[in-house]
Write a structure and sequence with these properties.
With 438 residues, this protein is α/β, with parallel strands linked by helices. The protein folds into two domains: 122 residues, Rossmann fold, CATH 3.40.50.720; 251 residues, Dihydrodipicolinate Reductase, domain 2 (2-Layer Sandwich). The protein contains 15 helices and 15 strands. The strands form two sheets. The chain has a nine-stranded mixed β-sheet with strand order 14-13-12-11-7-10-9-8-15, sandwiched between helices. The structure holds NADPH dihydro-nicotinamide-adenine-dinucleotide phosphate (NDP). Catalyzes the oxidation of glucose 6-phosphate to 6-phosphogluconolactone.
Amino acid sequence: MADDTVFFILGGTGDLARKKLLPALARLIEKGKKIKAVYSLARSSREDWEKVACSFSSSAKALCKFMPFDVRSKESYQLLAKELSSLKGKKLIFYLALPPSLFEDAVRNLGIILRNFTNPRSIVIEKPFGYDLTSARKLNSLLKRYFVEEEIFRIDHFLGKDTVQNIFSLRFSNILFEGVWNRNFVDNVQILALEDTGVEGREGYYDSVGAVRDMLQNHLLQILTFTAMEPPCCMEQEAIRDEKVKLLKNLSFVSFVKGQYIGYPVKGSRTETFVLAKAYVDNLRWQDVPFYLMTGKKLARRLTQITVVFRKIPKGFMALLDCMPRQNRVVFQVSPESKIKISIELRPPNWNFMACPIETTIEHSTTQGVDTSPYETLLEDIMEGDQSLFIRDDEVEALWQKVEPLLQDTSPPLPYPQGVELPHFALEFLKNEQREWY
Ligand code: NDP
């Protein structure tokens, strides 16, 4: 790890910085990580930032600074360059926690001033990385004009979550599971991110984006790659990222349905607040196994989970039993609680040959010990220059390419009432597939 890292958070007074980044950096400082300073850059709103900084321990507080800065002003970059002159040899990390409309300005102007410095540097870009394939390509080529790929960290905080990383560990560290993780044993895979909240307060932003761009293109597809990728040849970052890209090349969406909750605050809008999409991965491992990706707002509960549903027991063999055994499942619950559940069928006492579902739960705390926030994990990776959990240029383009058919669909979203477990059309969708939601 480079000695002494300096963080510059552009947009350092915003929601993300105050709620996630600054608290995570404060914890890293308290853990003794070599952070020399954390600069929060923004035009105003210093008061909100001070309230957050004040809550830190004295060691963290001492390293956090505020710097007035306008991404679009030349003078701001001159002042920043002056500050950089006093940081010789330090590793510089520029975190763009900005409205996406400012990413290009920030990349270009930072790139220009950094030409005068030899410090090791990284640039971190939050989602959304582009608005579609064309804009993502444009942002990639702009980044490459000023930075090399090893310096670019495209972040998706879902990959910092312990349960998501545990998909990888469970699969590739246990022959018990890896042996059945394929089309011979798996019937379908369900990846859900359900929310009970709506878009209130962010409708301006959300209405221009929708559920496909906000959740499916990034978080859900990232989870899918971890669930379905081939084992990498080794645990090197490029080997892992190569496998994710390879998988995406074989993925295609075959059908989907979009919805909007009744009472959505933007009148006349066709923006979807719900999407359910079915994908196939056309390779030897997954041919004909459907992957159902579903995300929606204003539903009955908050739940993010991945369920791998195994095939049914043959009917003939079980014909004399009153009820068929349920399908085995491995469930990775990301939220509200972090845990892994395995559903199997076992005989209850005194029942001849009959099987009953039993669920074994592995609590996250048992596997990991201390809970670490995803941002803490990812910020530490950035300091170490480890890009395994970050999205490469070709991957981000492959992700956009795959969702293009969903983005091009202009049909109006189907209405659904607020507070339902699942919209009726989502239930219908799976019923028509002769499957059920778990
Ligand atoms: P906010 O609107 O809360 O914050 C934006 C920040 O940018 C503020 O600090 C604002 O300060 C600053 N800013 C705006 N214009 C300028 C400018 N011209 N020059 C300098 N600073 C400017 O946004 P969020 O924090 O919610 O989101 C930031 C990014 O992170 C977005 O890309 C978002 O998609 C992404 N993201 C956010 C998540 C979250 O939990 N909030 C989760 C995942 C991703 P000021 O106006 O004072 O200059």
